[in-house]
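Example 3.2
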Amino acid sequence: MPNFFNEMYTAEPAVREHYRRFDRWLEGQPPEVIARKRTEADLIFRRVGITFAVYGNDAGTERLIPFDIIPRIIPASEWAQLEAGLVQRVKTLNMFIHDIYHEQNIVKAGVIPAEQIFRNAQYRPEMQGISVASDIYAHIAGVDIVRAGEGEFYVLEDNLRVPSGVSYMLEDRKMMMRLFPDLFAQHKIAPVAHYPDMLLDNLRSVAPVGVNDPTVVVMTPGMYNSAYFEHAFLAQQMGVELVEGQDLFVNDNAVYMRTTRGPKRVDVIYRRIDDDFLDPLAFRPDSSLGVPGLLSVYRAGRVTLANAIGTGVADDKSIYPFVPDMVRFYLSEEPILNNVPTYQCRKKEDLEYTLANLPKLVVKEVHGAGGYGMLVGPASTRDEIEAFRQRVLAKPDGYIAQPTLALSACPTFVESGIAPRHIDLRPFVLSGKTVSMVKGGLTRVALKEGSLVVNSSQGGGTKDTWVLEK
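Structure, written as tokens:
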């Protein structure tokens, strides 16, 4: 395993400046107290219902996402750089989505090949020429950030469809404040609890033209969805209704919600349902999750969907390599945050390099998500590598490859004690009349020794993320 950047310790080793106060506190904690607090956290999370549903072989079961009590701490100066880069990136992605559904200037300029967009499974021709409120498509973006090398930040991927995880960011903070109030008295930690208020303000700001007091709802596929806890949590925190498709109907070119007092007009839908299932008249006719006629109301500008239909084309892994060029094209600026170097297997020379170096690379399906459909070369057997080679050869344009980054690590409680485990960070960026974000995000941690896969579906856990105020 290559050397990796440790968030808490330098190579000497010495404790980094922004962790010193926490380190002194941790040194003074008896092991039995820490063990008791960790057990208490598990019990509370289970009682509150902070779980996620499991698909596949264990379908129908629910799993607790492991929570680690050693926080990931980010100093103010580092956060300022991250925030500027995230705002720049999300602003660019919104401009890109608007462009491809309107003038298509980036295609005409030859920056991105037309087939990469128009043959993309996430491209929605139904959105061509449609105006959306404030020209915002990705109202809520979850951008995955990793740290590698000497501590440089990289964007691993952009999540613009229905990014999840913000409820865990909020609940992790509540848990840490409950278990260790003395720590918060010793540190100036930026708050995150106001995220639901920011989200509601953001959603209200993009209501259809002429609507001054918009009705906002959260639309869920239902209780069997893996992120149902989050859907219910955010609706409750924002003080808005949680609805399913069957609770809504279209009449006279407007969307209504069934209530005990009769139909109520709905203006903004924060939907946690994929495009395909939103409207059986426009997309999948077998969908029972959506609202018949919703697309026609949306096209008429009489309801706002957050995120917009068709945003997925911008977070697809086949589009990811072009984002730095998008920043230059739309903003005439250099990207603040770097991409991970990426090989596009649709290109002959990139395919040849990938196939020759599979044991060293991470190879991903362009439409894959959640840690599925990928090969981590250094952690794979020879048979797994050869099986994956056949998949790539059969459909080269369905894969990208990247070097295996030595993700930064943060001390984490494991069975053997405290040991470094690899982490990433998902900050949440809100786009409305302005682009805003809370100072923090969801830190995910790969709990298996040496593992680089942090996804909860693959056994990962979470940590509270502290951004220190100046």
